[in-house]
Amino acid sequence: MNTTAVPVTDLTEHAPDRPGQARAALIRRQVDALLTELEHHDPHTQLTTLADLRATLDQTLTHTLVAAMAHARQEGWGLRRIATASHCSHEQVRTLLAQHAHQPAPPPPTRLSGP
Description:
Layout: H1 21-38, H2 43-74, H3 79-86, H4 90-102
């Protein structure tokens, strides 16, 4: 599979001393290694593995991001400040927080199916 890597902003560019930065960089390297490994598999394996990865990351990151937004709100942050830190609009923050208030936490993600 010939893929063109999408440029990813260097994790140190915006916040060189951000907590968790080293772990985020490690996860990025692991994802890059997975993508390289998948190049040697059939299309079905590539697609199902990537779909599972996307679903797991979306579910986990969205829930965690919204929980952090709720925490910031409890700390007195305004919607626009949360939006700026989260790289989204204040209306999206408002919507996500409203949904968060009415939904229980999702179950933990399942293990990705391997090739």
